[in-house]
Amino acid sequence: MESMKINWIAGVLTFLYLVPAILCWGQHGHYATCKIAEEYHTEAAKAAVKESAKGELAAVCSWPDLPEIRKGYPWSSALHYTNTPDFICKFDYCRDCHDSANQKNRCVIGAMYNYTIQLESAYHNYGTQKKYNLTEALMFLSHFAGDVHQPLHVGFIGDLGGNTINVYWYNQSTNLHHVWDTAIIDSGLERFYDSNLTTMIGTILRNITDDWSNETKFWEKCNHTVCPIPYASESISLACKYAYRNATPGSHLNAI
């Protein structure tokens, strides 16, 4: 079973970074991301994930967002996002990856590197498995791989990634960050998929096979196991182009 765990780690790391930036990242988004990843696991990986993740990977992808985890791991709050200076639509790791106390490397990108290193070390050296909690490392990494693709998890520092911009989603009062985290995908589920998450996931999988088949080689190009900096750069670019556009305080937004 230990060898299966190692094979699983390698398989999961390979695919976690191939999922395109197509979802918003509330609970449904994280579940969908990891559910799609599971479809690309080898049989050995599928068997090992049931052992190490105590079930399916998708079921634990929202684990870092649970209130009891946030409370029990207060240091992890800064690891879900990164911010750029206001109106700067380009991510710079040295400038932007720090927490509110300016401690370097404490952002979603730094966290992805950290947990990738932990999992890779277990893959290359069995002895290091005893040093790290690999189940937690996988759950954090799986979650952060989703977070970094939500544009406002790489938003402007002045509005805390849209959290302080109060808007209306249709007629519901909320904030811009929540719109992109949850409201868009929930509205899309209801409007296009009869509130059936399985149907939506199936549609995305078909798009990967068909419509996006020419892009998969680009997703795979990387000199290392993890390449989150391009993802952060893509997200802030999308935030500037779409998320912040016309999103002034009090504005009414919808999916039309």
TrEMBL record:
Keywords: Disulfide bond, Endonuclease, Glycoprotein, Hydrolase, Metal-binding, Nuclease, Signal. Residues 1-24 form the signal peptide. Its EC number is 3.1.30.1. InterPro entries: PLipase_C/P1_nuclease_dom_sf, S1/P1nuclease. It holds the Pfam family S1-P1_nuclease. It comes from the Eukaryota. GO terms for biological process: DNA catabolic process. It catalyses: Endonucleolytic cleavage to 5'-phosphomononucleotide and 5'-phosphooligonucleotide end-products. GO terms for molecular function: metal ion binding; nucleic acid binding; RNA endonuclease activity; single-stranded DNA endodeoxyribonuclease activity. The keyword Plastid does not apply. PANTHER family: ENDONUCLEASE 4. Belongs to the nuclease type I family. This is Aspergillus nuclease S1. It comes from Chenopodium quinoa. The lineage of its organism: Eukaryota, Viridiplantae, Streptophyta, Embryophyta, Tracheophyta.
